Amino acid sequence: MLEQEALKGPAAMGELGLGLEFHTWHHFSSFFDDWCERHKVLFIIASLKPLISLRQPPLPYLPSLASTLRFRFVRLICKHSGTYVGQSVVQRDQQSQKIDCPALITLRLGPKKDRLVVTEAKLQHNHQLSPREFSRCFKRSQLEASLGLPIRITNSVSKRFLAPDLVWNLEDYSRAKDKGMCKLLGEMHTLFRADPGAKVKLVFQEDVAILNSIFLATSHMRQLARSFPRLLFLDQAASLPGDFELYSVLCQDANGRGREVAYCLARRGTPDLLVFIVASLVQSVPEIKALVECLTIGVSCLAGVDTVEEVLPCARVQVCRAQVLEALGRRARELAVPGERHIVNLLHNLAHAASPKVYSQYLSDLEDVAPLEFLRHFLETWHPHKGTWVACWAYHRGENCPFVDHLEAHRQKLLSALGRDSSLAASVRGLLDLESLPVELQGLQAEEVAERYRAVGPGEAAALVAEELALARHGVGIQPAEGGGFVLEGAGRGAAFTVGADLASCSCSIFMAGHRPCRHIFAARLWAGKALFDVSLLPPAGGDDGPDLPVIRRAGEDSRHGSTPGTVLVSEATRYRQVTSYVGLK
């Protein structure tokens, strides 16, 4: 019934004019799409006002209409309003002449408060639109998909990092129009309150308030990129709700662990994504531009690989060879290629070719045996990028690329973060929750590090280091300290310990007693990516262990050097009381 009423009068004939009425936003959007296609004109949203005001309580009859009408005021203007000829494909005599097209359409809530009425309809344009531009720019359902954010704001936002004060404005605009976007902006608001140095981009489709991608890097992630820029790894890490995909950028820290330095949540099919992610990372941490030596990407990021060198001029860009071979093998199985095993072996030899000549020989062998469809796929997709994955061009001889291991460990971390809720806002919240000390400490290989200390240190010192490494797993929270270093929360209420800027000293009594590395030092070093095994952390042999506190060793514990003066054998219970009294922990 509403649909029939909405299309009475001139609208039923597809004409747009004053007094035209629409009972739903959906019907106006569909009508307007048809009208624009017929007349080959492009309009953008200049202003939208929600049906329900944020500053006044809604009238009792409005909430039921909020989901159908959505807005009480809408103004659409020509795409070329206020632009210069050189910015678009329109035909004018002078390239410097400003277009200022006067065409506009305004809809307001009608007197009955149950429909939108066309109150302005200036339909004459002062320019001719290029058919090529219309076919390139026009997309149906853009109005219906709009989040209600002003187009000029979303176009501007897409070109730079989001300012914290702008988040509140966008959140205010979207609160009554799109709850999903409002929740997403709420997460950004929470992030900026806790971390003003975070870098965020929201990229919308041009001239349409439809979110395409989110770039995100916290202050801690940026510091990791700053500290370890040499090797970077980028790949699609997960599929997200709403046709979005998660791309992650990792670095490798001093402990050989993959660490997250940036996230990008992008709508499937977003163009130029690889360059956008890398450029956004460099913009957020400009110091790394000339310091990145190698960027390894997954096969899902192949598009645009040839243009990355413009962003990272000193880096070689390579594609994960194992993924390339896996993708080619999968393609061979899909096409039911005869002699699949022989072809897979040829591809393996080709990928590991030691010289261009050897590559050409294996390529010739492949051309002799591979079916035409598979060969066409290889020549069109992988052969042009051979410089990024074939051994003689892409990888240094004998190089062991940790790409697969780092991404696998990263995806395991994501399982708990992305499985609780289906919304985009919840995905962002889950990713931010991963940026915590307890999560990082779950990957602490304490026993492996302790074994290295045992190989170089005295028995007593190595035993204490091993114990502190094990206790480091119980770290709770960490914050940057003024002047460098970190403040770590203790287990007791209000307890806090400061690790120095060198990450080799701590204010806790365990460190002060013998100047040996404590659990807080190890937790801080793991968080910052600094090496956990560092012999300089151990006190010098025969050094001063403190004026009053003896070296404490468990009763029955063997010493490589036997009992020495000043060494006291104590039971486990006595040792616990002594240590906890020094540290102030229970």
TrEMBL record:
Q: Keywords in UniProt for this one?
A: Metal-binding, Zinc, Zinc-finger
Q: Name one GO molecular function term.
A: zinc ion binding
InterPro entries reported for this sequence: DUF5575_C (IPR049218), DUF5575_N (IPR049217), Znf_SWIM (IPR007527), ZSWIM9 (IPR040854), ZSWIM9_RNaseH-like (IPR048315)
- Show where the SWIM-type domain sits: 497-529
The keyword NAD is assigned to this record: no
Q: What is this protein called?
A: SWIM-type domain-containing protein
